[in-house]
Amino acid sequence: MSLTPQTFTRAHVSLYSQIRDELREHIVTGRYQPHDRVPSESQLMRQYGVSRITVRQALGDLEKEALIFRVAGKGAFVSRPKPFQELGRLQGFAEAMHGQGYQTHNRLLSLETLAADAEVAQRLNLPEGAPVTRIARVRYLNREPVSLDVTWVEARIGVRLAREDLASRDIFVILENDYGLPLGHADLTIDAQLADAPLAAALGVAEHSAVLRIERLTHTRDGAPVDFEYLYCRPDNFQYRLRLNRA
């Protein structure tokens, strides 16, 4: 692959930032494909007329963004894009990932029936203290933990889910295909939090690392709330995407 340096006209932007931005553009637009070798440090030095330190700063930033990875003695290569799920479509995790060619599985941490607290009762439109089933699962993508999903459903549904293969099947698919509960829409709230020790252990990250938290309340087609959950997601190996149209 050859690289033609653009003329550096942004005097207020450092040279390494401009090199980084041009290389990033080649990666995200597909000019450089996954596992293509990035031009070597020496090649970039000659093409841009800059020092090795400048080139290493540019490549270092791209590595931090997970756009490239290094192989000792061989150079830098373009990373495979992060797997992603479209937030604009109501899909289960496995359903979305299998469509992109990824393998998924779940590790069931717990499944228990308990009394609904005020928050869960309000979300599922139940009296406080009504029996609900809480299901906690770690979702894996190509053997890497991606998220911890904590789900609450009415106990009458939870009793049936306890007999299902929750290691390989999405709850959404079970609700629709097996229980005849067509899903209609979901309400989402997204924020971030620091991982406590149990969450960090489940996701394989350092304690106090930042994780993405998605609160999702899914309704059936007739508008009844059926599935309330919190999704705690690692930001380093997975993405959520959303397309917005201007009104």
From TrEMBL:
State the InterPro entries in the record. Bact_HTH_transcr_reg (IPR050679), Chorismate_lyase_/UTRA_dom_sf (IPR028978), Tscrpt_reg_HTH_GntR (IPR000524), UTRA (IPR011663), WH-like_DNA-bd_sf (IPR036388), WH_DNA-bd_sf (IPR036390)
Q: Name one GO biological process term.
A: negative regulation of DNA-templated transcription
| Domain called HTH gntR-type: residue spans | 13-81
Answer whether the UniProt record assigns the keyword Transcription regulation to this protein: yes
What Pfam families is this protein classified in? GntR, UTRA
Against PROSITE patterns, the record matches this protein to:
HTH_GNTR
Which UniProt keywords are present, listed alphabetically? Answer: DNA-binding, Transcription, Transcription regulation
Q: Name one GO molecular function term.
A: DNA-binding transcription factor activity
State whether keyword Nucleotide-binding applies: no
Q: Which PANTHER family match?
A: MANNOSYL-D-GLYCERATE TRANSPORT/METABOLISM SYSTEM REPRESSOR MNGR-RELATED, MANNOSYL-D-GLYCERATE TRANSPORT_METABOLISM SYSTEM REPRESSOR MNGR-RELATED
Name this polypeptide is given? GntR family transcriptional regulator
